[in-house]
Protein 1
Amino acid sequence: MTSVSYFRTLILGTCNMLHKGPRPLVLCGPSGSGKSTLIKKLFEEFPDTFGYSVSHTTRSPREGEENGKHYHFTTKDKMQKQIEQNEFLETAVYSGNMYGTSKRAVEDVQEAGKICVLDVDVQGIKQIKQSSLDPFYIFIKPPSIEELEKRLRARKTETEDTLQRRLAVARTEIEYGEKPGNFDIVIENDNFSKAYEELKKFVISNLKQGETVTS
Ligand code: 5GP
């Protein structure tokens, strides 16, 4: 059996034994930490195992972003109404825009029998900790604020104002991320391949642990 199919059998086998979905993965890390690229690589390597929880946001799409794939792009009014109707697991205001995970987004992935992967900020983490989701919490840390600034500038998606706002948020997120107990693992992304291997190892070993507990 290839390592990929072994991994898949292991996870889905664990899921059947538990008679409920496997624990989701929640990734958090400052904008520019490389979290989206790590998630993308995980999906490329294990396309049938993981499913992405597509968030809602009121920010404008960036070049290459597709509605319904990267985000559900929406308006403040529409999102506000859905929040009032209790349709969201968590919501946040980040750099002047609203973001949120709808309950539907998570259920869609779970109903497809996949492990749900969420990408949220620290505000989202705090709310998810109050919910029944019970995920693994993974923090992706940039090597430094200076490096983060360099990456955000190279990305050319921000104005000077939004870039400065993102850096200010990043400082508080890193502080929260590094605090013992807030995350199950903190992965420093100074080298992409190394960070990806660390992420993969964490996911595989935790799902193995789940199997041992239930068998
Ligand atoms: P970006 O605008 O760069 O795509 O995302 C900005 C921040 O919002 C990132 O830290 C990202 O993790 C976070 N984010 C994306 N989707 C959600 C969501 O559904 N909920 C929360 N709380 N944060 C989100």
Protein 2
Amino acid sequence: MNGKKYIIGNWKSNKILSDVRSWFTKFNSLYKSDNKISLDNLEIVICPPFIYLPEADNLIKKFNLPISLGVQDISPFPQGAYTGEVGASQIADFAKFVLVGHSERRSNFGETDKLLFAKVDQADKNGLQVVYCVADNQTLIPQSVTMVAYEPVWAIGTGKTESGENAGKVADSIRGNLKTLKIIYGGSVNSKNITDFLTGNRLDGVLPGGASLDAGSFWEMIVNASRI
Ligand code: PGA
């Protein structure tokens, strides 16, 4: 758990193209104006809606930003006749990370363990790093998964959070004997509480949603995390 800390911004179904451009432009100016910050201990990831992956990829390259891309979902099928789906091999052109099993997918789209396991399988076959989202320590986790996001449903988008201490305890119980399993926390993480989650080395990172939408507040989280 002494490796890099992950800060994975989940934009959900937010932003239009012009917002995406403004976000990266603002992030770039904040990043370039702070020449003292060291990001060596952080892995920074943004998960935009699928449709903005190419533009986000272009902007990251243009500004030379220390940001990797992730996606919020993945097809359980390979490329082919699956109308409306985006497959792992298509995602792999742009993104390294994929969220699987977010509670909003489970509750709004009826995603089952069986479906989610098929999604993980597709991600694995195409070399994508799965971030498998669970609501508690009872949720089934596919064996190949190496990174889990613990996200209590009551904390998502509500402004209420687990304490770092409790989140760490749940992380320990999810990890069990699998000492190398990385566990991050999500649910109303912001620049004020991020330090609580990242100190003490029980958590490997955070998954902010709302607080990642503004480049300024996302940057503040990074600055605070870099000081830990
Ligand atoms: P939130 O979302 O930070 O807005 O609570 C977190 C998530 O759902 O991943």
